[in-house]
């Protein structure tokens, strides 16, 4: 028969093992972090707070957009900051956290007032700059559009200022004011919204249980209005 002392020791060991498992840091691929754009800051703030409620440490790893996805698929990362919904259908080895982090829009910026496309079709024969690996943009650009990719959002606006491209496409949160970087460079954001889509946090399938628990936190934050308060505060601070 096991003594009470040995039973308590076994329970303590089990709790210790459980705590160690939970304490494993998740490595999450992110991008355009140094630019501190509203979308990046909002996503990081929400995820940091939600993971903290689960006592789950995370580390955000700055990477190019495509490489972040490639490393996640190869098991070299535990998650990606955010992706479009369709990624879950393309890669069943990934787990999509069902509560969206953000609703975003693809917006157009110009430096030449004579250039004013109103939709995707009118981008034909223009030189279009965008952040490399942005799938929601890449999938909409046909062969008649001259694509110019950049590694960061700041680089995109520099290309526009220098006349290397005619238009730049930028993913921004809904209701977000024009980029302060663009405004400082006297670049104009057009009124037209090319597309509006939700973005979701992704984890490797092996972290499904963490993802389910994380979704419970995010859903509560959404229903209480906390997510929207975070978004609006960060966008206001960006002005």
What does this structure look like?
Strands 1, 2, 3, 4, 5, 6, 7, 8 and 9 form a 9-stranded mixed β-sheet that branches. Helix 2 runs antiparallel to helix 9 (226-237). The protein folds into 2 domains: 4-101 and 199-237, D-Maltodextrin-Binding Protein, domain 2, CATH 3.40.190; 103-197, D-Maltodextrin-Binding Protein, domain 2 (3-Layer(aba) Sandwich). 40% of the residues lie in helices and 26% in strands. The protein has 9 helices and 9 strands. By secondary structure, the chain is an alpha/beta fold.
Features:
single chain; 239 residues; D-Maltodextrin-Binding Protein, domain 2; 2 domains; 9 helices; 9 strands
Rounded mean pLDDT is 89
Proportion in β-strands: 25-35%
Report, as a whole number of angstroms, the end-to-end distance: 69 Å
Count every beta strand, where a strand is a DSSP E run of 2 or more residues: 9
- Can you tell me the CATH architecture of the largest domain? 3-Layer(aba) Sandwich
Give the helix level as a range of percent: 25-40%
**Overall 3D form:** globular
Q: What is the count of DSSP helices, taking H or I runs of 4+ residues? A: 9
Element-level helix/strand string = HEHEHEHEEEHEHEHEHH
* CATH superfamily membership of the largest domain: Periplasmic binding protein-like II
Number of domains: 2
Please give the CATH class of the largest domain: Alpha Beta
Report the C-alpha radius of gyration, rounded: 21 Å
The major β-sheet equals: 9 strands, mixed
Q: What structural class do you assign from the helix and strand content?
A: alpha/beta
CATH topology of the largest domain: D-Maltodextrin-Binding Protein, domain 2
**Segments where pLDDT lies below 50 for 5+ residues?**
1-21
């Amino acid at each position: 028969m096991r003594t009470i002392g040995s039973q308590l020791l076994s329970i303590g060991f089990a709790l210790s093992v459980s705590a160690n498992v939970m304490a494993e840091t998740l490595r999450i691929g992110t991008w355009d972090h140094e630019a501190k754009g509203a979308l990046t800051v909002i996503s990081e703030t929400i995820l940091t707070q939600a993971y903290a409620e689960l006592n789950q440490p995370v580390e955000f790893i700055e990477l190019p957009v495509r490489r972040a996805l490639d490393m996640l698929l190869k098991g070299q990362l535990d998650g990606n900051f955010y992706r479009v919904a369709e990624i879950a259908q393309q890669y069943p080895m990934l787990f999509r956290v069902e509560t969206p982090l953000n609703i975003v829009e693809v917006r157009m910026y110009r430096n030449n007032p004579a250039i004013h496309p109103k939709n995707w079709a009118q981008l034909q024969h223009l030189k279009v700059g965008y952040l490399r690996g942005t799938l929601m943009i890449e999938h909409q650009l046909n062969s008649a559009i001259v694509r110019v990719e950049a590694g960061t959002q700041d680089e995109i606006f520099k290309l526009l200022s220098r006349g290397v491209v005619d238009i730049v496409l930028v993913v921004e949160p809904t209701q977000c004011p024009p980029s302060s970087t663009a405004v400082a460079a006297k670049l104009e954001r057009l009124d037209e919204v090319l597309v509006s889509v939700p973005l979701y946090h992704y984890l490797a399938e092996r972290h499904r249980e963490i993802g389910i628990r994380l979704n419970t936190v995010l859903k509560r934050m959404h229903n209480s209005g906390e997510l929207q308060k975070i978004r609006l505060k960060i966008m206001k601070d960006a002005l």
